[in-house]
Automatic annotation (TrEMBL):
<dbReference type="Pfam" id="PF13375">
    <property type="entry name" value="RnfC_N"/>
</dbReference>
<dbReference type="GO" id="GO:0022900">
    <property type="term" value="P:electron transport chain"/>
</dbReference>
<comment type="similarity">
    <text>Belongs to the 4Fe4S bacterial-type ferredoxin family. RnfC subfamily.</text>
</comment>
<dbReference type="GO" id="GO:0051539">
    <property type="term" value="F:4 iron, 4 sulfur cluster binding"/>
</dbReference>
<keyword id="KW-0249">Electron transport</keyword>
<dbReference type="GO" id="GO:0009055">
    <property type="term" value="F:electron transfer activity"/>
</dbReference>
<keyword id="KW-0479">Metal-binding</keyword>
<keyword id="KW-0997">Cell inner membrane</keyword>
<dbReference type="InterPro" id="IPR037225">
    <property type="entry name" value="Nuo51_FMN-bd_sf"/>
</dbReference>
<keyword id="KW-0004">4Fe-4S</keyword>
<keyword id="KW-1003">Cell membrane</keyword>
<feature type="binding site">
    <location>
        <position position="414"/>
    </location>
    <ligand>
        <name>[4Fe-4S] cluster 2</name>
    </ligand>
</feature>
<comment type="subunit">
    <text>The complex is composed of six subunits: RnfA, RnfB, RnfC, RnfD, RnfE and RnfG.</text>
</comment>
<keyword id="KW-0411">Iron-sulfur</keyword>
<feature type="binding site">
    <location>
        <position position="380"/>
    </location>
    <ligand>
        <name>[4Fe-4S] cluster 1</name>
    </ligand>
</feature>
<protein>
    <recommendedName>
        <fullName>Ion-translocating oxidoreductase complex subunit C</fullName>
        <ecNumber>7.-.-.-</ecNumber>
    </recommendedName>
</protein>
<dbReference type="InterPro" id="IPR017900">
    <property type="entry name" value="4Fe4S_Fe_S_CS"/>
</dbReference>
């Protein structure tokens, strides 16, 4: 148990790591990025079925207008982030890797920041089911990175009962500070979003869990709550991966999600602060998600800060705007622990992109980054928050015994946090092995 938990009598999760946090942009207010000349909007920027286009090449669209509809319940619509003309629907690179169909919008020069399409509604009139429908219509997904459709997450299955909404304000990944800024700059929208989510899920209590390196956000949110409020703000230990659902549930409520289970199995539903602040803003106005806050940072960035970015903005445009340098650079979308590295600078910012990091890529000749054999030091075992044996899993992966990894060593419990790779003195890319093994097992199961 960490010092924080001993001092404050809390039951945090065991294991985890303390990487350098580099939260240098935490004091930088959110700034709006201008529109790029062209926006690239992949139809599958969420988990679930891709959206179905509602527009054709040459059609004019206005800022906020729906341009693709949800394909059934496990899907969300897309809205135009800027006024312009549809340039086509083409295969384009995405943060997920392979190219997928995307709607391209040529943005009109001088396009207004005003949202020209909205359907305001009285939220006090809506039933829980109507709130869920309004959330799907907004196109909202988990903005923390998962991009899981928010209406699906907040629709509690009939055979489950939840009593607590946990609001995830941990932002435990190094560099990222966009959630921190949202809590500081949009506390009212966040608290509105929390109320809508509580009504939708029928929960009577909410806990906002925030790492204790953001005490200004803890104090500010507390100052917005009255005595007897069903919403509580709780500082939790700063430790990676505190922001993963299972870890935060353990820290905030001392409940453990069973192997293969979901938060609802222990009466909890978890949502990220950015997602709920977004819902608090969009739902009463009847608008769709067209922009998001991302942290742009890293040693190669000239103007690190938090930017409000139109969805679909290519990362090349952002890099040109903020300025970057470095001969050997690596571009990461999200945090450095779990975010994917991208090579194509045409890749757009999508709903699940929380950051753009420009890091110095290690040279392949650099001795300190060579991969060495496992020395059985067990550091990976001590770091794994899921209490797995990454060393053994790594050895099985090297022998391509993927099924055995899943059946005997609980590979499916691995949520790819990267703690094991981070501490390994032999630089064994354990988490990359596990991603490959899980993908192969998924393919075989399908
Ligand atoms: S990546 Fe998987 S195995 Fe490695 S520490 Fe995280 S949960 Fe454990
Ligand atoms: S940390 Fe690396 S070297 Fe140590 S036991 Fe784990 S895999 Fe082996």
């Amino acid at each position: 148990m960490g010092l924080f938990n001993l001092l404050f009598g809390q039951k945090g999760f065991t294991h985890g790591i303390h990487p350098p946090y580099h939260k240098d942009t935490a004091d930088k207010p959110i700034r709006r990025l201008p529109f790029p000349p062209q926006l690239v909007l992949p139809l599958d920027q969420h988990i679930g079925k891709p959206a179905i286009p509602l527009v054709v090449k040459g059609q004019e669209v206005v800022r906020g207008e729906p341009i693709a509809k949800a394909d059934g319940n496990f899907s969300v619509p897309l809205h135009a982030p800027a006024t312009g003309r549809i340039a086509g629907i083409e295969l384009m690179p995405t943060p997920k890797g392979p190219k997928t169909n995307a709607i391209l919008i040529d943005v009109y020069e001088g396009s207004t920041q005003e949202v020209l399409w909205e359907q305001p509604r009285d939220m006090s009139e809506l039933s829980p089911q109507e709130i869920i429908q309004a959330i799907q219509d907004s196109g909202m997904v988990g903005l923390g990175g998962a991009a899981f459709p928010s209406h699906m997450k907040l629709a509690i299955p009939e055979d489950k009962q939840v009593d607590t909404l946990i609001v995830n304000g941990c932002e435990c990944e190094p560099y990222l500070t966009c959630d921190h800024r949202i809590m500081l700059e949009h506390p009212k929208a966040l608290l509105r979003g929390i109320r809508y989510a509580m009504r939708a899920t029928g929960t009577e209590k909410a806990i906002i869990g925030i790492e204790d390196n953001k005490m200004d956000a803890v104090e500010l949110l507390k100052s917005h709550l009255s005595n007897g409020s069903p919403v509580e703000v709780k500082a939790v230990e700063t430790k990676y991966p505190q922001g993963s659902e299972k870890m935060l549930i353990k820290s905030a409520l001392d409940r453990e999600v069973p192997t293969g289970g979901l938060p609802a199995d222990v009466g909890v539903v978890v949502n990220n602060v950015g997602t709920l602040a977004g819902l608090g803003d969009l739902l009463p106005k009847g608008r769709g998600l067209i922009e998001r806050v991302i942290t742009v940072a890293g040693p190669g960035i000239a103007k690190p800060a938090n930017y409000l970015v139109p969805l679909g903005t290519p990362i090349r445009y952002i890099l040109d705007y903020v300025g970057y340098e470095g001969a050997r650079t690596e571009f990461i979308l999200g945090g450095p622990m779990m975010g994917p590295a991208v090579s194509a600078l045409d890749t757009p910012i999508t709903k699940g992109t929380s950051g753009l990091l420009v890091l110095n890529e290690p040279s392949i000749e650099d001795e300190s980054h060579k991969i060495w054999p496992c020395i059985r030091c067990a550091r990976c075992v001590s770091a794994c928050p899921m209490h797995l044996n990454p060393s053994m899993l790594g050895q099985l992966a090297a022998k391509r015994k993927y099924e055995e990894m899943a059946e005997d060593y609980h590979l499916t419990d691995c949520f790819e946090c990267g703690c094991c790779s981070y501490v390994c003195p032999s630089n064994i890319p354990l988490v990359q092995y596990f991603r490959i093994a899980k993908a192969i097992n998924r393919e075989q199961a399908a």
